[in-house]
Specification:
This protein is an alpha/beta fold and 310 residues long. It contains 12 helices and 11 strands. Strands 3, 4, 5, 6, 9, 10 and 11 form a 7-stranded mixed beta sheet that branches. Strands 1-2 form a two-stranded antiparallel sheet. A two-stranded parallel sheet has the order 7-8. The C terminus is likely disordered.
Length: 310
Amino acid sequence: MHQGVADLGALELLVAVADLGSLGRAARRYQLTQPAVSMRMTTLEQRLGVRLLVRDPSGTRLTPEGQQVVAAARELLASAERLGALADRLRAEATRHLRVAASFTVAEHLLPLWAQALRQGSPESMLSLDVLNSSRVLTEVVAGHVDLGFVEGTDRHLPQLASRPVASDRLVVVVAPSHPWARRRVPVSGPELAEAPLVVREPGSGTREVLDEALRPYGGVRPRMELGSSSAVVAATRRGEGPGVLSALAVADELAAGDLVEVPVDPAVDLTRRIRAVWLRSTGLAPLARRLLALAAPKDDSGRVQAIHG
């Protein structure tokens, strides 16, 4: 782009001179001095390499070249105004639109309540949600495709990300009522659980990460089936495919209805986990994301939201 064309302020003054017929009247419109306007016009002519104005005692008039430049300047200024209006609209939409990625457990059992509270406090807000396993949530946040992510599982410290815990959860071992473990009163030990063919979530999910970590001292997980959603694990477990391992949140309804039975597990097998919010450290949190995180965040003893940093 030519250096002179980039000076929209000078072009706006030139159009005013053309419309009003004098440097003085253009100066008064923009609350400038006449010498200041004259200097801007001289600089514009020098940058364009074209004489634009003829100044005489009767006023200021455009040269033929100046008339052409003014016509082009009107179009450019109108385009700049449209661009400014577009930018204003996009900024307004950005303050209302929150992009979130969440793991399956969070998306199905926690985020709906948080989102409902967010809409009550910010009726104009719009939340778009990608439901992914925890590894893919992290990928989306790092790539800047979403404003805020919620993940389960073990803490994976990525230098690009800030994070904070928002909830805790535990995994449970469940079986169909017909399974021998359904009548078991003695907790299943770590070695027993590691030896059992289990129905489990796929690698990369937060549920699987916690299970892998918990059973690593006993030889690891022996999957009978690896499935890509909690509902699929529930269905396979109900069919009697084997013991399933899932979030307690994901099987609460089935346990209450008696469709599945929780199996006691030795407390030495740590099946607890934290659910964390994650976001890009470099960009921080937009106001709407900060509001959602405040709704999800744990409260201190006085009921106030703990401070959010980053």
